């Protein structure tokens, strides 16, 4: 029986449209001739639309996007040199608003060092871990303000919001994930020695939930120490659970050690299925390389592998991942050395996907 999946595509700003176009190309290739059809609706949101109309994400946009089965987003955020776009007006008004409104409380960011990838670490080892970053709380909720603004006595504050409900549901998701993975290890990353109130809530929640998962070995690291271990011995990690801000920072570092931010994929998941989940590369809109076909679309393509898996299409997801792995391995060889454009990389992965089966061995 054929299945139609309604996909909302939000290419966004900068390199977003360039990488989304390649991700859709691969999605088309992997579903070609199969029973699943992606019905894609594009939403032209971002800096361009804001500059032209003053709108970022209207109630009507949100309602229309909510009616889809999943969302693929490129990147948002205009050129920071444009004064009208400063203060993350698009990032907060579009990306964070979507994450909050669609209750994307799990921000899933897998990190793997693929064979042949040029990691800046001389010997990274078998790196394969997932960061489960809380996605709807922390200091990202916009709970703050400033007093005496613009004076030498200005006071600025941003409150990090951590609720028992919010922490417990993401911690449970992380334990479930750790239980399914072969290594069965979970590391809570926080700063409990200084951020004592929120840190204590996270630690107590992990301790309580751990009792229900005796097969999962639990560890704790302060966030500053975690950055050392991510560089010195990243293979020690399996599942990391952490808050919104620490997860944001750690996953850029994770992207860097695993071959570059152009390879780092993510999913903003609503595990309850009440709202569509949203898949996006970890990187931003990269105004420095936008419009030049210099962006690596691999992160966006790997984000569609996460999307396919989330939608119950594991075979297609594995085929996309295998095609990416083959392409990455080829990058180290003479045949594909030299600069390839964004669309050349997308073309190569789309072509590989068509000839790879989910059972192809690596
Ligand atoms: N999820 C999102 O939509 C995010 C949006 N942003 C926004 O993006 C804009 C630029 O932010 P930055 O902090 O500079 O982060 P960025 O991730 O856009 O760029 C950081 C560096 O990585 C490079 N880079 C990023 N993606 C790449 C790719 N696919 N291939 C090759 N190189 C790549 C860029 O050229 C730049 O040198 C800002 O407006 C920011 O707020 C930033 C992070 C996430
Ligand atoms: C641009 C921010 C709103 C978000 C961010 O940096 C991220 O989630 O990676």
From TrEMBL:
It catalyses: (2R,3S)-3-isopropylmalate + NAD(+) = 4-methyl-2-oxopentanoate + CO2 + NADH. Its cofactor is Mg(2+); Mn(2+). It is an enzyme of class 1 (oxidoreductase). It is found in: Cytoplasm. The keyword NAD applies. Keywords: Amino-acid biosynthesis, Branched-chain amino acid biosynthesis, Cytoplasm, Leucine biosynthesis, Magnesium, Manganese, Metal-binding, NAD, Oxidoreductase. Residues 6-349 form the Isopropylmalate dehydrogenase-like domain. The record marks 140, 191 as: Important for catalysis. The keyword Iron does not apply. Its EC number is 1.1.1.85. Substrate binds at residues 99, 109, 133, 224. Pathway: Amino-acid biosynthesis; L-leucine biosynthesis; L-leucine from 3-methyl-2-oxobutanoate: step 3/4. Its main location: cytoplasm. Binds 1 Mg(2+) or Mn(2+) ion per subunit. Mg(2+) binds at residues 224, 248, 252. NAD(+) binds at residues 284-296. SUPFAM superfamilies: Isocitrate/Isopropylmalate dehydrogenase-like (SSF53659). InterPro entries: ICDH/IPMDH, IsoCit/isopropylmalate_DH_CS, IsoPropMal-DH-like_dom, LeuB_actb. Signal peptide: none annotated. Belongs to the isocitrate and isopropylmalate dehydrogenases family. LeuB type 2 subfamily. Homodimer. Catalyzes the oxidation of 3-carboxy-2-hydroxy-4-methylpentanoate (3-isopropylmalate) to 3-carboxy-4-methyl-2-oxopentanoate. The product decarboxylates to 4-methyl-2 oxopentanoate. This is 3-isopropylmalate dehydrogenase. It comes from Frondihabitans sucicola. The lineage of its organism: Bacteria, Bacillati, Actinomycetota, Actinomycetes, Micrococcales.
